[in-house]
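B., you asked whether I could sanity-check this one before it goes into the benchmark set. Here's the sequence:
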Amino acid sequence: MTARPPHPATITVPIRSAVTAILLAACAAGCDRDPETRYGTLRGDSLNGVSAFAQMLRDSGRTTSTRRALGERMVGRHDVAIVFGTGSAAPPADARDLLDRFLDRPGGQTVVFVIRDSDAAIDYWLAVVATQGLTPDKATAAHRKLAEAQDELASRAGASFPAGTRTLGYGLSARKKPVTAPGEVRLADSTAAPLSARWPRARRLEPPAGARPLWTQDGEPLLVERRGAAVHAIADDVFEPAAEEEGATDDEAQAEHAAESDEEPHGAATAGASPAGCDRTLILASAAPLLNGGLVDRGNRRLARELIALLPEGCRVVVVGSEQVRDNDAESDRQPSMWRLLMVPPNPWIAAQALLAMILFCWWKAPIFGRPRRETAGRPEDFGHHVAALAALLRRSQDDDFAQRRLEAWHRPGERTEAKPPGGANGA
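And here's what the prediction gave me:
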């Protein structure tokens, strides 16, 4: 008996093993990775993102939308704008102009500006470094990631300035030693006990004159409110650097700034007040209680709820990410699309793995594409390998006798070709 040649599409065991290994590697690529740490992201599970806080706003009954950057279309569409700054520096001039136009709209408008003074990724890697039993490789990698997170915060937030000098920011002054331990946060106009929250701070908030502290810790303001003042008016008052003696201590700097604030007339701080006087600007000293990583702390979750409670019931809120430069409005407010869906993690990994699987499938089937069919060695009229096709043809002939004779002939291999078609020799 002649051996049958291998089919062109047959895959050998080594090739099948290689394909399996590639698929497993592709699937495993999206499983073991470091946590996402991008700051101010509005979607996903980044430690420094604010997606959980945005969901808390929605759960409170407030209509909430998100934007990656400030845009003109947010003016007149929302009552509250919560803006996450990229660092301790003042917002760009065009951003302040836009926020002023936002406050100038009729009705009570609110701008909440959140300063970047801490990083949830640093807390995460500090906890990893302190973990007992790490292998040398993992310990080295954790220390490297911690250093990268600290350097990134220093470059973005301007944390590398001499202690005791005031930086050009929302009245932020440096500390000689950052606050890392949990502290007691007191809420203004509240008789409840102080909240214990983990709120790391590298700088002290020096509020503008006329601002009312809403949250304090050991007499130091953490959240302040200023009513009826445009953002530019606050910026001119707060962002102007103050001359201080080099090497001054934290206490001396705080006392000097408090004395300067007492000497300034209260009315001068509200030069940009709106006629209605109901607009307000809130300044939060750090995003720590609002970040995804910070909300792990119970006290920070309570502070986030307290901040939401300061916003009007049923208001329309827009949360603006850390991209301060205004991009194209059409780009920011474009309608949802499949491409935008694919950009939401972990969809990029899923799409990449699905594409790889399709490429491997096509490669697997490539031998049968674009090649002529192999001619069978048997006689064309031998329908032994095409029983289903023969049955369909016989059903269409509607000749039961011929079908019966054809079936009997098929069972007799020596007589398979002797049967005549329906109608005899001249049948069509």
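One thing to flag: The chain is about 35% helix and 15% strand. Otherwise nothing jumped out at me.
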